[in-house]
Write a structure and sequence with these properties.
Helix content: 40-55%
Strand content: 5-15%
Number of helices: 7
Structural class: alpha+beta
Strand order of the largest sheet: 3-2-5-6-7
Radius of gyration: 40 Å
Number of strands: 7
């Protein structure tokens, strides 16, 4: 009898100890299972912006890389006459220096010398060959680069160029017209004389 009671009590103890733990253990196992799909679905959303750089035009990306390669070393500065030549705003560096000395180059509204150190964000105004160029510096480079690379180094706010008729020199003959006659030469000399008189500053009266 004692052994049977012990077995009965043991069975009841097993049922009491097993019955509460069964559902709780199942509840804990089910709870993480509901959260796992949510975390798995959320991970791709955070990484969807990673390949945004791949959308850049390959030609533009190559131009930007070339501009970065032409930039100065760490701690080095770039002269304004060198920069306007490097980004093809002017044909030679000597012309850039001459433009600075002649007062045709202004940075942030101030006249600058050829050795002025230009910085990113500066507004550069250059008047050359009858046209005004207004650019904002985006990248500093010291070596002259091609036109596709040069346009990646500044923001161009220049006014449109004047029409060619407004800047055409006097006395230009059509291609294939042959050598000028005596009458043509007299007309050319007259036009040049009138042009020189128009450019001469007025004298004292």
């Amino acid at each position: 009898m004692a052994s049977e009671d012990a077995d009965v009590n043991g069975d009841h103890g097993t049922e009491r100890s097993g019955s509460p733990t069964g559902p709780r253990t199942g509840a804990r196992a089910d709870a993480p299972a509901e959260d796992l799909p949510a975390r798995t679905d959320a991970e791709p959303e955070g990484s969807s912006d990673a390949p945004a750089a791949d959308t850049m035009d390959p030609k533009v990306a190559a131009a930007v890389a070339a501009a970065q390669a032409a930039g100065p070393g760490k701690g080095e500065t770039v002269r304004i006459d060198s920069w306007i030549w490097a980004v093809r705003l002017i044909k030679t560096r000597s012309l850039g220096a001459a433009a600075c000395r002649g007062g045709h180059v202004h940075v942030n509204g101030e006249r600058v010398k050829p050795a002025y150190s230009v910085r990113v964000g500066d507004e550069v105004r250059l008047r050359h060959e009858g046209r005004e160029r207004i650019v904002i510096v985006k990248r500093l480079i010291r070596k002259r680069v091609g036109a596709p690379v040069a346009v990646q180094c500044y923001v161009d706010n220049s006014p449109p160029p004047p029409p060619r008729d407004a800047v055409a020199p006097a006395g230009v003959r059509d291609r294939g017209a042959g050598r000028p006659t005596k009458r043509d030469r007299r007309e050319l000399e007259r036009l040049r004389a009138l042009r020189s008189l128009g450019n001469r500053p007025p004298g004292p009266r």
